[in-house]
């Protein structure tokens, strides 16, 4: 048989699923975990941000207590010294698949999204279907996969493979996820034939709790968007105009409309997430002073290495991001007082962003301040509300403040 993807069958459509609960929020809140040294900011300004698992486990429990809907980890393959510089930026990194999955044991409500380069090396869809079914069982339906195709030639070389052409990667990813979905939906032995994978009498158990795990991808290209609207529940987008907020807010409405309209033509509804780096202090002046201190401590060697990676990448999403914007990091920068941050989040919502995947410079205290000063204002603005969660078969009420 040939694999099929049932795009109309999403865990978001099942009342009681963790994804359905997250989708009831006017603005989905996610945390992009710093499971690599340096996080998202190429700066040597002192901070406590740490790539180690214990630190990220604390952040995840902190985010869950604040009512965040999901956490996410970056996947990368870098050589010794990472991107270089004094920091050896991102030389140390946890595997996103294993680290994010391990958080299931210490959390109860929050969604856990693991990033996997499914086309690298020896991955077979049957492996990931079985692993995903197991993680779905362990997490009570809270696990999902951010399936990425790999846009850096040196990463492909690590696995002894030539990099596949951009659009062909998405065609192969669609093939891969079609096999996953077919296995997750079947309660029988399956013989499956595709152009790149073959399975004889394959079977996966247990059945996923809500039809299948959550599916995510990150993209900005036409081929990636076409894949996303067909196969994803959450689409991780970037600003097509760079990290400056005013530039981004002008470009995002057309970009998000393209995704929304593409899904609607297929009678699907996906949600878009964008990754702002939040720099928030009690006053605008203090916030800009904090940002300026971060930028003043740029590790120029690491910055050169990070920006230089672009020459080995065919990604379309980052073309307008400027070198200096990579110091603070993130898809775009939200800088200001709590009230100003809320105004900017409202603007992102109006521009078609269904959620945000937040990063910070000094994660633990900056996330705590966000919870203390910004979240109550988001509730007042109607961007967050109380939610009913279904954990272990029971209903519990959580508030976001």
From TrEMBL:
Recorded protein name is Luciferase-like monooxygenase
Q: Where is the Luciferase-like domain?
A: 30-354
Q: State any single GO MF term.
A: oxidoreductase activity, acting on paired donors, with incorporation or reduction of molecular oxygen
The record's InterPro entries line, in alphabetical order, gives:
Luciferase-like_dom, Luciferase-like_sf, SsuD_RutA_monooxygenase
Question: Pfam families of this UniProt entry?
Answer: Bac_luciferase
Q: Which SUPFAM superfamilies match?
A: Bacterial luciferase-like
**Keyword Cytoplasm assigned:** no
Could you tell me which species this protein originates from? Caballeronia glebae
Keyword annotations from UniProtKB, A to Z:
Flavoprotein, FMN, Monooxygenase, Oxidoreductase
**Has keyword GTP-binding?**
no
């Amino acid at each position: 048989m040939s694999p099929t993807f049932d795009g109309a069958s999403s865990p978001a459509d099942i009342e009681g699923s963790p994804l359905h609960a997250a989708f009831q929020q006017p603005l989905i809140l996610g945390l992009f975990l710093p499971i690599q040294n340096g996080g998202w900011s190429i700066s040597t300004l002192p901070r406590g941000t740490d790539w180690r698992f214990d630190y990220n486990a604390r952040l995840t429990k902190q985010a869950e207590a604040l009512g965040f809907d999901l956490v996410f980890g970056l996947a990368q393959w870098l050589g010794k010294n990472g991107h270089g510089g004094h920091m050896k930026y991102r030389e140390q990194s946890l595997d996103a698949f294993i680290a994010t999955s391990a958080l299931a044991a210490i959390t109860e409500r929050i969604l856990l999204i693991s990033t996997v380069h499914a086309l690298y090396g020896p991955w077979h869809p049957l492996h990931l279907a079985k692993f995903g079914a197991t993680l779905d069982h362990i997490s009570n339906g809270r696990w999902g996969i951010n399936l990425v195709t790999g846009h850096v030639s040196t990463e492909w070389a690590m696995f002894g493979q030539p990099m596949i052409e951009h659009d062909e990667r998405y065609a192969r990813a669609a093939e891969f996820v079609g096999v996953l979905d077919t296995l997750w939906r079947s309660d029988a032995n399956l013989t499956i034939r595709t152009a790149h994978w073959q399975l004889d009498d394959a079977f996966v158990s247990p059945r996923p709790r809500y039809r299948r795990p959550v599916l995510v991808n990150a993209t900005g290209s036409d081929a990636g968007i076409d894949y996303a609207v067909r196969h994803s529940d959450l689409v991780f987008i970037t600003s097509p105009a760079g990290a400056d907020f005013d530039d981004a807010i002008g470009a995002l409405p057309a970009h998000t409309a393209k995704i929304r309209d593409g899904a609607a033509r297929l009678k699907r509804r996906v949600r878009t997430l964008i990754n702002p780096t939040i720099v928030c202090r009690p006053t605008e002046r203090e916030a800009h002073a904090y940002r300026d201190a971060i930028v003043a401590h740029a590790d120029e060697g690491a910055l050169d290495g990070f920006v230089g990676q672009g020459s080995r990448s065919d990604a379309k999403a980052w073309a307008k991001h400027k070198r200096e914007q990579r110091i603070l990091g993130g898809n775009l920068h939200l800088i200001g007082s709590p009230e100003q941050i809320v105004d900017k989040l409202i603007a992102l919502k109006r521009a078609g962003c269904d959620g945000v995947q937040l990063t910070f410079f000094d994660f633990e205290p900056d996330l705590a301040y966000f919870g203390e000063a910004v979240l109550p204002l988001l509730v007042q603005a109607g961007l967050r509300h109380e939610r009913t969660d279904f954990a272990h078969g029971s209903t519990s009420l959580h508030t976001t403040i």
